[in-house]
Amino acid sequence: MVLIFIFLSMALPAATAAETSQYVNSSFARAAQSLKLAEKGDAVAQYEFALMCERGEGLPQNHGEAVKWFRSSASQDYAPAQLFLGLMYASGKGVSQDYRQALLWLHLAAEQDNTTAQFYLGGLYFSSTALPRDYAQAYKWFSLAGRADPSRAKTLEVLAEKMTPVQIMEAQSQIRNWNPRGPR
Fold this sequence. Notes:
The protein is mainly α. It contains 9 helices and no strands. Helix 1 (2-39) packs antiparallel against helix 2 (43-55) and helix 5 (99-111) packs antiparallel against helix 6. The N and C termini lie far apart (66 Å).
């Protein structure tokens, strides 16, 4: 029994090391390829490289570098990058925490019908202590996000309890009149 355990413990690290090496090499190659395209101004490649920087995939984790590439991509009106840049500002990763910048970038992504951005935007309006609360805006964004994921709409029940009937009517009017915009 002890010999089997010793044998297994000796065999596993070698296999894991080989698999890890293969993963690291492929991650590094993907990062290098994304960087080449990102430097040429490709918004999707900039976003993908920023994700790799943020997560430490194929290169050392570097939040500041991630913000740089998210910003380059987001400035080209790429909604997923706008979402992540907003989250970086909200969390203070790679930049000074700035809820106004978070709100700006999340708004840009949410207006393009990015439901994750809509959900986070609703959260900022609902519970931020750094920004004025706006329950009508929170209701609007949570409602729009809930179209794609009904489980997100459950937040509306909690929110509606805090709202006046006038606020709810205002939010519902905004929802009826809302049209997503495409990238500029």
